[in-house]
Amino acid sequence: MPKPRAKSPRRIAILTGGGDCPGLNAVIRAVVKTAENDFGWEVYGVRDGFEGFLVAGDRGISRLDRADIAGILPLGGTILGASNRCNLFAVERKGRVTDESHRVPAAMRRLGLSALILVGGEGTHKAAAQLADLRVPVVGVPKTIDNDLGGTEVTFGFDTAVGVATEAVDRLHSTAASHHRVMCVEVMGRHAGWIALHSGIAGGADVILLPEIPYDPDRIVKRIASRVRHGRRFSIVVVAEGAKRGGGAPVFRKGSGNDPIHDRLGGVAAVVSQEIEERTGISVRATVLGHVQRGGSPSPADRVLATRFGVGAVHAVAEGRFGRMVALRGGEITTVPIASAVATLKTVDPAGSVVAAARALGISFAAADGGDDPHFASRRRHGAP
Ligand code: F6P
């Protein structure tokens, strides 16, 4: 790694933290091109998220040039590698937990890096806020298919995930109709049900279950039974992985012991399917989309958003707007304090207009609090299925 010379161009670094997401490579490409084209700067890439700072001899950090970013725009994943949600402030090794955050400013000093662009979700931005408190010059870029990061109207990756989930719902429709079955599809959405809500509406689901609206199995059954009474012999249920029964808890996979930081959700579709099958006698099949939603090529909308975020992040560095995250607000790219972006997760508003639009179509959220389906009773009076 060459030492910075007095007159060498400014150097900045980029890191992709947390889980991968379609559009990460578009951000990296935009950062490298903008830094070079607009400012003549050099960009360095940190490998495997924050783990790149833990590699001896700064071997986890290397120069990114034009050849590195050639052809990466349509590629899923991240050319920098993603970490298994490494938390630099509590690194666990051989049973000991240590704070390794000091490695970031130390490496930046050694390599002459004057700013760090952190692309990530909630976890990465929490670390970014802590690094900013340590006076590390950071700029955040919001990424998550779950779309639950505050401060921005939308995150890149979400559009692609909704596209994948909607295609799955479309495909499940035809097989559900042929076999007169209920299809229950589990999509990602840990704390926020945006993917379930949007793919459920786009795919014409009959029931959508969200983390924000605890469900009552009786209400799911009522909706399906009503369809049967009206001659609809199949139904589609879209369930977010973080959905929970009223008074209950989300469904987690049996612990493997390998993932102590990040409890793994999964299995709610199987639970809901069993409940429906037992109560209705109708054949039910569960489908779990899982990481299919995170992999593969980003949608055109995500490529554009990720590119705009990448350009915005470099300009934020140029203007010294550190401790801030680029964000989409009113359709324009701006920056917000990182601390405010992570202060509250952006969850689905059960009383909001998107949920209301779904309810207007007769989609049930099977709300355990009884607040569900305001239009449904009158629709049924008029004979709607
Ligand atoms: O945070 C995004 C997300 O896709 C969640 O919806 C999901 O629970 C989680 O990542 C799974 O990530 P991993 O399996 O990579 O830990």
Describe this structure in words.
The protein is built from twelve helices and 13 strands. By secondary structure, it is of the alpha/beta class. The chain folds into two domains: 11-156 and 298-341, Rossmann fold (3-Layer(aba) Sandwich), CATH 3.40.50; 161-294 and 349-381, Rossmann fold (3-Layer(aba) Sandwich), CATH 3.40.50. The strands form three sheets. A seven-stranded mixed β-sheet has the order 3-2-1-6-7-12-13, sandwiched between helices. It binds 6-O-phosphono-beta-D-fructofuranose.
Q: Short summary of the structure?
A:
The chain is α/β, with parallel strands linked by helices.
List the helices and strands and how they pair.
Blueprint (H helix, E strand, L loop, with lengths): L10 E6 L7 H16 L2 E5 L14 E4 L1 H4 L21 E3 L2 E3 L4 H9 L1 E8 L1 H12 L4 E5 L15 H22 L2 E6 L6 H9 L4 E3 L7 H13 L5 E6 L27 H13 L3 E5 L11 H19 L5 E6 L2 E6 H6 L9 H8 L15 H6 L4
Parallel strand pairs: 1-2, 1-6, 6-7, 7-12, 8-10, 8-11, 9-10
Antiparallel strand pairs: 2-3, 4-5, 12-13
Bound molecules: 6-O-phosphono-beta-D-fructofuranose.
The site of 6-O-phosphono-beta-D-fructofuranose has 12 residues, from loops.
